[in-house]
Amino acid sequence: MSEPLPETIRAFTALSISQSIVDDVVLRLEPLRDAYADTNIRWVPVANYHITLCFIGDIPSAEVGKIMPVVAEACEDFPPFTVKVGHIRLFPSPETGAVLVADVVRDEPLMTLQNRLNDALLSAGYNIKQRDKYRPHMTLARLRKNKIAPAMLEKAGEVHVNPVRALHLYRSWKIGETRKTVRNEIIRSHSLS
């Protein structure tokens, strides 16, 4: 953590992405960035790439020390595993896609960890933001009213294996004059055993 936390933080739990996968995704995005350079697409800063597990929302900074034991309990006896990061696509669907993502395969270890963490945070009284179905992905860009032609997206991309050895508690906040750029930072980590 680079500086003291503000009184309130926007918190979420997530997995980090290996640098080799980040580098590959950046390379695969170059044609899209070039083709859509003059449009109003908000590209996610590369340093912000992650796979969200549970979005907690705004919490007092004092809660950070209370969340980590909940995270540790949810991860008890959970061994390191891998996740597969692959195809670049529109999310939630090609027709309604408002977000460009790298897909993450919904394998058993990932889904079990997310469920355990979700249940533990709810049981501890955190009002986490839940969706009907957990759909893991890595957000690459927000499209607003713009659309990316499906022909521009890869029909098949290489699937990479990302090692997962720890779960992280992140904070996010808006920066810059327009406050439209978001920065994410890992503030605590819990190693898988």
Structural commentary:
A hairpin with a 5-residue loop joins strand 8 (166-175) and strand 9. The chain has one domain (8-191): Cyclic Phosphodiesterase, Chain: A (Alpha-Beta Complex). The strands form two sheets. The chain has a five-stranded antiparallel β-sheet, with no helix packed on it. The protein has a four-stranded antiparallel β-sheet with strand order 3-1-8-9. It has helices at 19-35, 64-74, 108-123, and strands spanning 8-15, 42-43, 51-60, 81-91, 99-104, 137-142, 160-164, 166-175, 181-191. The protein is globular and about 45 Å long. 23% of the residues lie in helices and 36% in strands. The chain is α+β, with helices and mostly antiparallel strands and 193 residues long.
* Major sheet description: 5 strands, antiparallel
Annotated CATH homologous superfamily: Cyclic phosphodiesterase
Order of helices and strands: EHEEHEEHEEEE
Q: What's the architecture, going by CATH?
A: Alpha-Beta Complex
Uncertain regions: pLDDT < 50 for 5+ in a row? none
N- to C-terminal separation? 23 Å
Count of the separate structural domains: 1
Q: Which fold does the CATH topology refer to? A: Cyclic Phosphodiesterase, Chain: A
Mean pLDDT: 89
CATH class group: Alpha Beta
